[in-house]
Amino acid sequence: MSDEKKLTLSGRGTLGAGKGVETGKVRQSFSHGRSKPVVVERKRKRTLKKGPGAAADADAATNEQAAPQKTGEAKPAPTGGGRGGAQKPRRPQGGGRGGLTQAEIAARTGALRQAQEEAERRKVEEERRRREEEALRKAREAEQAQAEQEEAAAETEARRRAEEAAKQAAEDKARKAREQEERRKAEEAARLEQESEEARKRTERARAAARAAGTPEAESADSAGARKKKGAKGAAAKKAEAAKASKGRGEEKRRSGKLTVTRALADDDERQRSEAAAKRRERRRRQREIAGDGDKAERKSREVVIPEAITVQELAQRMAEKAPAVIKALMGMGVMATINQTLDQDTAQLVVEEFGHKVKRVSEADVEEGLIGDEDDAGDLRSRAPVVTVMGHVDHGKTSLLDALRKTDVVAGEAGGITQHIGAYQVQLGDGNKITFLDTPGHEAFTQMRQRGAGVTDIVVLVVAADDGIMPQTVEAINHAKAAEVPIIVAINKIDKPGADPTRVRNELLQHELVVEAMGGDIQDVEVSALQGTNLDKLEEAILLQSELLELKANPDRNADGVVIEAKLERGRGPVASLLVRRGTLKVGDVFVAGAEWGRVRALVDERGQQLKSAGPAQPVEVLGLQGTPSAGDDFAVVENEARAREIHEYRQEKLRSKRTTAAPASLESMFSAIREKQATEFPIVVKGDVQGSVEAIVSSLEKIGNEDIRARVLHAAVGGITESDVTLAAASEAIILGFNVRANKQARDAAEQNGVAIQYYAVIYDLIDDMRELMAGQLAPEVREETLGLAEVREVFTAGKRGRAAGCLVLDGKMRAGAKCRILRDDVVVYEGDIASLRRFKDDVREVEAGTECGLMFANFMDVKKGDQIECYVQTEHARQL
């Protein structure tokens, strides 16, 4: 191999063959003198000369293409060549004649061989995998084909069986129809035979009677009877032949072809009844069945569900009877009803029993059946914490006592220092026992709150201030506790004050039939001081002792139920309800119904603001996830799914709507009351509060304000902030908006300013009540009061001027005043009431005349004054009304 043809290895170049492409540029011409340069390439086929170096060059080229490049090994770069085709490779910089060494050639040859073997192996593997996939595909296709064949065979078999069943049913139906028709024809033939026999007997009797009488009509009767008998026999024979022919042929064939007189006369024996006649006969048969004249078909007795109200048509459908039959049955009972008229449950039951069906009465209230559940077994019950309600008069220290037990300060957060909500807390004692406390308001406006608190509690702690004694709300709390039949523990508070007298409290309790243990009774009493923390441990011991006597237990392993203590609407949280669990365990995700609202528990929060996963018996929690705000005091219960919850929710909402829209029965007293209410001035009010209990107390207090002249009318009362819709309602009714612990948003404030609607905010309920009382009193006209000044007697009447008459009077009592009002009494009857026009003493006008003095009086527009009349002088003053 020559040096020019040999491939060389260069340090800077790459190993490769020379380019076999020559390039050049030509200019391509277009029309209108345009041209464009174009690059032209020409490939030249490489020709290799046979020589001693040809094989080596070929091996080297093959090895060069197949062998992988090694790290640090550079390929020789080809240099530009001439026209000869192959280009000279550069020689390595180290000098010498060398090309590839034998080791390199061997390595490249081995690599090439390995690559070829790997390619063969991959090809064999690919062929094997392809065969397996082809076999698997064929197997799947075979299984699918077999399944389709089996399915087609099953479908064909089912179709065949259905066709056989339909064919069998059709054959049975046709057979029954044939048997019925044959039976009918046989009965008809027997009836005709019987009629002909009866006619023959009558004819014979008539003929015998005629023979006995010896009249010539006998012969004619005999001949007529013979003809009639012959005709009857012929008719019977024809009918028998027709019946026999019909039996042989099966079903009768309808007349076909053109009907002519000859054919009609000739085929008289084969005439058939028309379709109209058959329909009339069927109609008469049905009427006989309905009327009960014919044989009644056997009815299938069904169980008919009857709601509280049902229409005649629906009742007929449920009984599978015809509506005319039901209407006829109602007419038989004296009830004239149409098909769309509604029947009550009792009438519908009578109709169902008349038709021989069974009655199942249902009510809309049945949706609530099983809501609370059955009583628990004694083996499932576990001990639970007692629920203790703290009650008493306002400002006697109920909340402070709870703060001392809980070691918190709730009083500081209450507006006016009084409690205006029911608060629920659970206290854990040092020995691990728990007590649930309910703090109720003591203000008189919160009567319903205290009543609810006493209704859900186990024990009532009656807080009485030692320096104040028994007060009105204390008596009310005692009555609530007695009505709920719960035990009472008396906590005599504020014993640290100088004027404290616990003995006085115990003596006053005797007036209300509460005898403490110190006086030989069974009611525990504890002297405590919430401020100093005195005897709090004794109060806890008394509560635990009373709970042990009550043996309080509940089943935690069941669906939860309990009572709504309080409900409110919070921004960002939606409707929030404070619940007290009675039985079971309330868990996150439970679907429950609370009053007329329902929801799914999204979160459980205790009184400390901590998130809980579940709440057991006697545990108070706040629940998020309600669809609306329930009323305080409503019961709640967990249900199995949302469908049941929605069903109960819709029933209770409908019940509330009907309750609001149902008018009270009219009576004479209600009519007069309505007239009085229409005459009274209404003071419209819109109430928005923070919680349901406070709104309820405000509405109850406002309804008590007023008299026969004015009364408060609450247009809307709800929980939540004041919105633009509230302002719109108030503007339309000229009402005032009261916000209790809530505020109006910006849109509501702007709308109120634009429409001139007054919005008043309150934090203490008695401030709100006092202001409303003053505002309502200001709407009334002032009260006019009469004050008597004096009494005078007419001694003489004389003429004054041309047409006037003056009365000479003696003042008997008080005084007479010029310009004042007077009343003239004659025999104790008022004959004039007006003003004193002139008052004179002798001839001088005076302002007043005292008792025991004579004077002259003239009256405005009155001259019929007589001697002996009594003149009563008085003045009228206006005073502001009070409610």
From TrEMBL:
GO terms under cellular component: cytosol
Keywords, comma-separated and alphabetical: Cytoplasm, GTP-binding, Initiation factor, Nucleotide-binding, Protein biosynthesis
Transmembrane segment boundaries: none
Entry superkingdom: Bacteria
PROSITE patterns xref list: G_TR_2 (PS51722), IF2 (PS01176)
Main location: cytoplasm
Low complexity bias: start-end ranges: 209-224
InterPro entries: EF-G-like_DII, IF2_assoc_dom_bac, IF2_II, IF2_N, P-loop_NTPase, Small_GTP-bd, T_Tr_GTP-bd_dom, TF_IF2_bacterial-like
Coiled-coil region: none
Composition bias type Basic and acidic residues, residue spans: 115-143, 156-207, 238-254, 270-279, 288-301
Binding site for GTP: 392-399, 439-443, 493-496
NCBIfam families in the cross-refs: IF-2, small_GTP
Protein name according to UniProt: Translation initiation factor IF-2
Organism: Rhodothalassium salexigens DSM 2132
Protein encoded by which gene: infB
